[in-house]
């Protein structure tokens, strides 16, 4: 049920090949089937990946970045199989990712943390470093310039020489996004980049991401629980539920899809024309019937935020 | 679209003006000058231990340098890369026995027989061999973590010592003279007596290790090793192979341990397998933890502390272990970052800050 959205004209260097394609992906942890044949196609631009807790979103990222072995299926980056590659090779091939909780060296500076992202792009080794070769020094300065420019985009330039542990959670998450982006990836996997961020930080994050996406024609894939953010940012959204893609398409299509509403809120809700959701009487006669519906609607609050006036202008 | 910057942003942390910008270089220089002249400086009642007047004082300093050099490598492995590899005692023994056996004359009696190599050929060969062994051990060990890694590498260290001890009993050809112990042929720097040439050799070894260590940890290797220590799980998506860097740390620490072992052997002029049992590992752990784990000057401070204490308590060996134990517990409880951070802690303490304010207000004539 994969729906391939039209990519921006002339933007894709390898026309017709998705930046990242996931075919029939199965993952099981022991007897627990986490992904049951997931097909996804991601093109340059912003792609949203949403779904209730435990749906398998992060598992998709983990398979793509090499943390989890798949039991069946394929992952292709610009048409090339990545599953045989090591994690390091995948980074060199152009896959960048961030983690749900920021993972920074707390007693190193923000600059040093960001420089880690350029690690694989250094040509001179540690022996040159030991001999204090000027070429190595130049390379380091170049890398620092690139990192400083990237930090500047995310409003962190003034904090560059602060220890990362002294930063707020929001700033730490921004540092991690900056670190993933200085590695010059073509596909960026962002795992809940906006969770725990203040409104200001979210604005900075989105501005930085939009600029970079436009300049470098990145394929950005975002896992996010803030539906308002996802619908305003991503022209294409995929919804994962119990290891299966239950809906895919434009934000309007996805947010009004009865299967999605059922997955998020359980039985007894439906969407009106304008996207409002209200409870209905009686059983729903749905063609997308899900067997395991969560009793609790954990994301109800997030969902109703969607009705609030939009602060972010969609690009 | 980027935000226009009026002035270029500083790419390196800003340095204070004046002479203070060279603080790090000056500190490094100062420490080495201090070490070189320590035997001739009578301070803190150290004269009876680190005295230039007797050979015993300079010999003690050479021990400080040897332990310091081993602890530098150990610090790189444990403090920076966070890998609890404990094979250091065995590799220390490898350095001691390796140089002793290789550089000994081949026609001497059993306790002093060897392979006739020149000392300055034997030394790098043994150190590089130790580094290679360290890396080979690291291959399986880098997949282990915490306790399991500690036990596996501890066993390796014991294995090396056992191989040395079993020579002549089980196999022969290593010329380590089994459990009886090996006499170490002395290398003399031309124009210097035995003690002074050992002193200079050990100082040279320490300076070499220390400089490499300072240069490497201040740059990319330092931050990469810290990444392996702190965010091991996230190193993959950064393009950092954590296994590779653990192996680098294993190799460097093995090199340092073997070099230190060779210096130690030159100084003590006799090597016995019993010396390199777990006790030596505990000594090095005390040096490292009391000095300051993951701190630049930690190994050296710890080594001075340890040798000083050992010499003070040389008559009561049992008390030595008691006091070392207490020192280790106190270090972990009171000074978890070691003696190396004591100056900073004092500088940042409330009392000193208060005193500073008072002094400044006293000296402030504008009000």
Total of helices of chain B: 13
**Strand order, sheet with most strands of chain B:** 1-2
Return the CATH architecture of chain B: Orthogonal Bundle
Oligomer: heterodimer
State the separation between the terminal residues of chain B, measured CA to CA. Answer: 49 Å
Strand order of the largest sheet of chain A: 6-7-8-3-9-10
SS elements, strand count of chain A? 12
pLDDT average of chain B, as an integer?
82
Question: Main β-sheet of chain B, in a few words?
Answer: 2 strands, antiparallel
Per CATH, the class of chain B reads: Mainly Alpha
What's the count of strands of chain B? 2
What are the secondary-structure elements of chain A, in order, as H or E?
A: EEEHEEHEHHHHEHEHEEHHEEH
Distance between the termini of chain A: 27 Å
Verbal overview:
The complex is a heterodimer of chains A (315) and B (367). Chain A is α/β, with parallel strands linked by helices. Chain A has a domain at 104-184. Chain A has helices at 57-65, 87-93, 110-115, 126-130, 134-153, 169-181, 199-216, 227-233, 251-256, 258-265, 300-305; strands at 20-29, 32-42, 45-50, 72-77, 80-81, 95-97, 187-191, 219-223, 236-241, 244-249, 269-271, 277-279. In chain A, strands 6-7-8-3-9-10 form a six-stranded mixed β-sheet, sandwiched between helices. In chain A, β1 (20-29) and β2 (32-42) form a beta hairpin. Residues 1-14 and 282-315 of chain A have low confidence and may be disordered. Chain B has helices at residues 23-37, 55-80, 88-103, 119-141, 146-165, 194-218, 220-230, 242-268, 278-291, 298-312, 317-333, 342-348, 350-363; strands at 182-183, 270-271. The model of chain B is unreliable at 1-6 (pLDDT under 50). Chain B has a two-stranded antiparallel sheet. Chain B is 63% helix and 1% strand. Chain B is mainly α and 367 residues long.
